[in-house]
Amino acid sequence: MLKTANRHAAASGLPALIPEPVSAVCGDGCFTLSAATVVAAGDGARPTAEQLAELLRPATGCPLPIAASASPGQPQIALALDSTAAGLGPEGYRLEVTPKRVALAAPTPAGLFYGVQTLRQLLPPDVFAAHRVEPAAWRIPCVAITDYPRFAWRGLMLDTGHDFQHLPFILRFIDLMALHKFNTLHWHITDLGTFPLEINGYPRLQDPATLGTRTRGEPPRGVKPGRYTQDEAREVVRYAAARHITVVPEIDMPGHSTPALIAYPQFDCPVPHKTWDFEHWEYCVGNEATYGFLEDVLSQAANLFPSRFIHIGGDECPKDHWRKCPLCQAKMKAENLRDEDELQSYFVRRIERFLNARGRRLIGWDEILEGGIAPNAAVMAWRADKHAATLAAAAGHDVVVALTSHLYFDYPETTTPLDKVYSLEPVPEDLPREHARHILGAQAQMWTDNHPTEKEIERLVYPRACAVSEVVWSPAAARDWPGFTWRLDVHRQRLAALGIVVEPVAGSAPAPAAT
Ligand code: ACM
Ligand code: ZN
């Protein structure tokens, strides 16, 4: 939050930062980026210095040479890894802008990277343009910022399982996340529309005949065909890691598995059935062959994605035909399971043991609480009426808040408006304080059931993701809707330079004026 005592000092150039930093004290004057500016990178800071220079060069045209050090009189942006800043935590940074020098220090490269994102936002919005622009000057207002995130899990979910998106779009999605200091891309890879990830040994997963047929919208749109090779998945992981974003893959099971079951019906229950509109929906979890298949898929996914968590879905599995399936019923008998909820729980525990043995943790949608949660599992709480975040966190399980009520961005803004998103408090009120540490953070979901185009996806995600970035990064006490609206008015210009047109917020507050 801006130190109000200093607000008037820089009222005309008050930094409009999203997410709002922990503390920003405005000074007098500014640093002007020019052809004479060098980037000084101390030990270990060079990769981030290169990222900074690459981000600033296209619009400014400044060469921004990188050197190990610069002479004191030279206009410079100095990046330093600084262990004395360890108190800021693993993602914190300090940024000080004076007329002669910009100094960015952090205990880790991640902290430096977030400082770079703030520095970009201190420049005129045109700095985000992909081509050379000529503003009056590339001024950075003098300011001293200390900043670190509130939550460790700051995420967006992208759904390529209802509909496919191309690789360049996913990389751009990651760039936009980085600008907002998100650090987790939950990649919902598979669902009822498509299983687009190449899995060695199972070539039929991307057979066009497996694409979901349900169409919605006017005119109706089908699932776009496409696949990600394993090399492309590695490219997504590498690209995200360079931006300090972890990709958490989701292979949805045992429900939402239509394409895999069209491709390999031997893993479905051997009884005729329909779940909702679908002849194939959930795996037969009484069949040992199913576990062999899923373990093949998960071990390949784990090799591609080095994330601590692997998401296994677990949502919306009605289990009706497990009741009629001789294999599922035999498994229940053999394992002493009372009902089909316990059967799903048995399945999730078994998958958890498989992942834990490979050093990974399982995360699943909050249905994994039903029938008894697996011992080390983390829960993604999506159903607002189930109090899953409170139940799971109070029982000692880690939780990521992903509520339909505030964080489903496939819903239009008329249903989930920006101010509602901004009002979200991730730590449930009814959760005893001593369990609050189990709320790892929150994330917004971009589902693609309605087959949006890639442009439409960006327009659904922004500016609501700007609000989420502040919910998960900024201190709870800094939440300030009028303040957010005037900062967003400036931020809209940055997004416009990046090719995302966002309407002005109705009734947005004016920037604080000089007193
Ligand atoms: C979900 O919306 N099925 C998690
Ligand atoms: Zn079965």
Describe the fold and architecture.
This protein has 515 residues and is α/β, with parallel strands linked by helices. It folds into 2 domains: 7-147, 2-Layer Sandwich (Chitobiase, domain 2); 153-476, TIM Barrel, CATH 3.20.20.80. Helices cover 30% and strands 17% of the residues. It has an 8-stranded parallel β-barrel with strand order 8-9-10-11-12-13-14-15, surrounded by 6 helices. It has a 7-stranded mixed sheet with strand order 1-7-5-6-4-2-3, covered by helices on one side. Helix 1 (46-60) runs parallel beside helix 2 and helix 3 (167-179) runs parallel beside helix 4 (230-241). It is elongated and about 80 Å long. It binds acetamide and zinc ion. The site of zinc ion has 7 residues, from helix 7. Acetamide binds at residues 315-316, 365, 382.
